[in-house]
Amino acid sequence: MCLTIPGKIESIDKGIATVISARERAQIDLSLVFQAQVGDWILYATNRAVKVISEEDAKEIISLLEDKYHPVDVSKLPLKFKKIIFKVRSGNSNLTKDEILYLLSLKGQNNLETLFAEANTLRKERIKDFICIHGIIEFSNYCKNSCLYCGIRKENKVPRYRLNSEEIIDTAFDAVENEGYKLLVLQSGEDDSYSDADLIDLIVKIKQKMKVFVFISVGERSEKFYQEAYEAGATGSLIRFETSNSELYTKLRPNKLLKDRIKLVKAMIKMGYYVASGSMVGLPGQSLEDLADDLLTIKSLGVPMISAGPWLAAEGTPLASSNVMHNNAKTQLELMLKFVAVARFMMPDVKIPVTTALETLDPENGRHKGLLAGANALMFNLTPEKFAENYSIYDNKYREREKVWQKYGLFKGEESWEMLEEKLMLDK
Ligand code: 5AD
Question: Can you point out the beta strands (E) in 93-208?
Answer without folding.
Answer: 132-140, 183-188
